[in-house]
Structure to design on (350 residues):
């Protein structure tokens, strides 16, 4: 049985990748941070109590800031594949906590690679395959469309840290012959997306406004353009990269871009509302340096991996709004029954 270790298993992509690998018959192990509240909401539907069934999914406490725990977990799990999805992944927040972002995203990647290098060296038949979650944010201000040959021009502490992680990964591949792939993924969304990323912030608000639970939606720059795909499609590309004969780097994208304004228009239209009546500007959502236009050229992934996105922009918006409308209806029903539900994170500027 193939064993995979996923760092960042509790995140959006971690949950989709876990489902994908379990369906392929993998034994999946995940590294998760200790939290004072449960942080496994995205995984609870696939987790089985090990006392009752076999351990197809096992969770281990760990953190990319703790190299000793990473080494110990790798020795214990003895993975065939490692997916490094762990990150402080919010671009705006990275301007507020740049040192922590660099410690997790850049140095954390280095810690994991070092742990794997020692593990790989220790035995002759190990050769673990490693996936590094790179980002289109690394292209930053480089003109669209962007491909594997586009020079990086990062515009945030997050993006600079991802560039460092990318080059650590390339260097370890070249220096030590390790099987390491960098996926350069453009934005990918889903109903599991964190609620402070713009697509989910919009679809949550659409649901709540249409159910009378929220007045306005406050946003920053509506002109930014992104190449938005569906997260469930993108985890397949990660896996495909690790199944090739040789390691390489790939852009993963849909090849279409839309503005934040376009997303608002489409999402509010799903419930028969005009976005202009409900969206207001708040400058605290602006970033000190913005990334204006990301549009990916994923020809290499299409030609070499046979990968194609299945869910387009309209279907993605429909899926996310439908999910968040259901959530808002549940919230309204609870309110009707006398429960008070606070708007979460309302005070946070992200
Ligand atoms: P996400 O939902 O923010 O998940 C990030 C994961 O990393 C969570 O499991 C989080 O744990 C974990 N994490 C954070 N800090 C950690 C630390 N110090 N040690 C260990 N784990 C830590 O992100 P995502 O959207 O799934 O993205 C997955 C990866 O792809 C990230 O590296 C992201 O930067 C990158 N990426 C994402 C996109 C996108 O559009 N989604 C595009 C390109 C690249 P908690 O649950 O405890 O917070
Ligand atoms: N979050 C947020 N909140 N973004 C807003 C808002 C707002 O209120 N108003 C406008 N935006 C704009 C941002 O300025 C940005 O241009 C765009 O919406 C998208 O922002 P996010 O959804 O936060 O995503 P991101 O593109 O900055 O970063 C995401 O994608 C990267 C890949 O390109 C994250 O998932 C990163 O981890 C990932 O690497």
């Amino acid at each position: 049985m193939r064993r995979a270790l996923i760092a960042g298993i509790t995140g959006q992509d971690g949950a989709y990748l876990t489902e994908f690998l379990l369906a392929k018959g993998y034994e999946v192990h995940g590294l998760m941070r200790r939290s004072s509240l449960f942080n496994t909401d995205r995984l609870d539907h696939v987790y089985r109590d090990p006392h009752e069934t076999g351990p197809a999914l096992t969770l281990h406490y760990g953190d990319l800031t703790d190299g000793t725990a990473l080494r110990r977990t790798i020795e214990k799990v003895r993975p065939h594949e490692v997916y490094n999805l762990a990150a402080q992944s919010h671009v705006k927040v990275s301007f507020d906590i740049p040192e922590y972002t660099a410690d997790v995203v850049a140095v954390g990647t280095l810690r994991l690679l070092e742990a794997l290098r020692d593990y790989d060296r220790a035995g002759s038949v190990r050769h673990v395959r490693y996936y590094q979650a790179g980002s289109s944010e690394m292209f930053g201000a480089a003109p669209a469309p962007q491909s594997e040959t586009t020079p990086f021009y990062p515009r945030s502490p997050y993006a600079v840290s991802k560039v460092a992680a990318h080059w650590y990964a390339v260097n370890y591949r070249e220096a030590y012959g390790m099987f390491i792939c960098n996926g350069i993924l453009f934005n990918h969304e889903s109903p599991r997306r964190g609620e402070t990323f713009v697509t989910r912030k919009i679809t949550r608000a659409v649901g709540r406004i249409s159910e009378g639970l929220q007045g306005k939606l406050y946003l920053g720059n509506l002109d930014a353009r992104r190449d938005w795909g569906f997260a469930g499609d993108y985890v397949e590309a990660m896996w495909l990269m690790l199944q090739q004969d040789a390691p390489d780097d790939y852009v993963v994208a849909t090849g279409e871009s839309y503005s934040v304004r376009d997303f608002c228009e489409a999402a509010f239209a799903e419930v028969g509302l005009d976005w202009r009546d409900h969206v207001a500007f708040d400058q605290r959502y602006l970033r000190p340096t913005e990334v204006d236009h990301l549009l990916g050229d994923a020809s290499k992934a299409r030609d070499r991996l046979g990968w194609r996105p299945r869910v387009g922009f309209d279907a993605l918006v429909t899926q996310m709004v439908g999910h968040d409308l259901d959530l808002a209806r549940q919230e309204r029903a609870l309110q009707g029954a006398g429960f008070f539900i606070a708007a979460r994170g309302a005070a946070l500027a992200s």
